[in-house]
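ZP: hey, is the iron/sulfur cluster complex queued? I don't see it on the tracker
AM: it wasn't, my bad. submitting now with these inputs:
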Amino acid sequence: MGKTISEKIIGEHAGKEVSAGDIVVANVDVTAVQDGTGPLAVQQLNKINLVQAANPKSTVLFIDHAAPSPHKDLSNAHGLLRDFAKKTGVVLSEVGEGVCHQRLVESYVKPGDILIGADSHTCTSGALGAFSTGMGSTDVAIGIALGKTWLRVPETFKINVTGQFQKGVYAKDLILYVIGQIGADGATYKALEFTGDTIKAMTMSERFTLSNMAVEAGAKTGLIEADDVTKQYLEELGRGDEFRYIQADEDAEYEKVFDIDASKLEPVISAPHTVDNVKSLNELMGTKVDQVFIGTCTNGRLDDLEIAASVLKGKQRHPDTRLIVTPASKQVYIQAMEKGYIQTLVEAGAAVMAPGCGPCVGVHQGILGDEEVCIATQNRNFKGRMGNPNSYIYLSSPATAAAAAITGKITDPREVLV
Amino acid sequence: MKEELNGNSWKFGDDISTDLIAPGRYFHLRTNLPELAKHVLEDADPEFPAKVKSGDFVVAGRNFGLGSSREHAPTIIKLAGVNAVLAKSFARIFYRNAINVGLPVLICDTDKIDEGDKLSIELSNGVIHNQTKGTEITFNPLPNVMIRILNDGGLASHIEKHGDFKLED
Ligand code: SF4
């Protein structure tokens, strides 16, 4: 019987044939923590006297969630990470370098790898054809020290997407639609594999948006085969030699198959307070918006900023609506400057933040006031997510978010897209 | 790990996220877990940190612990004195983290438990005695791998003891 992408990759790393349901110890290629989870990982290794890294060059500690630090306790937590990096020789990604998942796909993860990261959206790298999954601090700490982890080989749901998007519909709308269909726990313990003509035609950036949100359906990872688009992406990053093709076998076994016609999709929004609370724009049109946030590991890449800039070019943000823009990484930031997107966004009234998570996780740079509404391109809208349980978060594509920045309310992006 | 657990129930609904358990606005307390534990589940029930007693149970609906990978979430539930979390289902990362930090997580039909019910749980037999209602609820025992980790007092202790993963006989 054929194998899914998960079964292939985990099998290679466990040194034996595996199939869904097996529990194995597997080698890991890349390990990562961030500044919210890393300090606890370091403390765990200190506690059991295991201050070491099996693969220092592919172990990365990211300072991205609270970067630059807004609080002395966080500055001290950052210090723990810097010390650990000095002692073990692992890589430290400093303030300003960007969000972990974006940095991981740019520089560290390659097709066929296993990546474990102490951050739930580690599934983002699945778009490179890597088995990447989020775990807690202790699991990843042990992965850092020993270069391996234990895994249950997941069953796979195949998400087969065909057809072309209409104007104003993007990968973000697709993944929100999929999560609305599957539900927030519909894919718990499963891997998703996105495939079909629509996916094959997508850029890597769009693919990352899909894989990033796999966890919002409960999934362990969101995989996409490594094909010529992946190859070109890595070549453009000067990493062509790290490429290899990865795909599922024709006769691989899937627990469920979802067939989606992309041409039938409309722009959608996920309404408070759960990601699977997905609604059509019509139901929400006119809702007043206090803050617009464009950024994050979901939609803070170059093409996302390009879309936002094209919507906002020559326009002004609504006087009652703040606009915060955070490029996902230093590389994205530089390219967006070169292309003039940052200029356009600042002229339109955006406050542009240093690459990092920004207000996504409620630490700083855009905490909402009581009863305030934010429309954000991030991946989560849980109560309290942006720092205040008495506020409301709507999730959308960059186009829908940018449209709201102009009108001050939830707006159909097709009305402002040229 | 104690074989029998006794305590009172606190009832929560579906989709209790890690943002409700360990809110992001207390990010700076993540290196001070006893302090962070004073805010446990605060955004789901503002009174909970004040009323929870050592030995109590958190009883919830579906998909408990969805969201971020923050291991601080199960850790502060444990630090607050909670003996075990019972839910209809758990999000994957939370479930794994709970075992890693030595917090028992049991999947069972929690509709049969109301707030304030006194429970007595036999971990290895997979039985929950609802003493208030005089009823019994069964739960599926944990996978072997997880029982090993839990019995060693969590993953860090497991590795400290064996020097490596020792998940099989
Ligand atoms: S941008 Fe948001 S979702 Fe992504 S890693 Fe940062 S906090 Fe998490």
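AM: back. The pocket of iron/sulfur cluster is lined by residues A 65, 99-101, 119, 121, 296-297, 357, 360-361, 378-379 (CB under 6 Å).
ZP: great, adding it to the tracker
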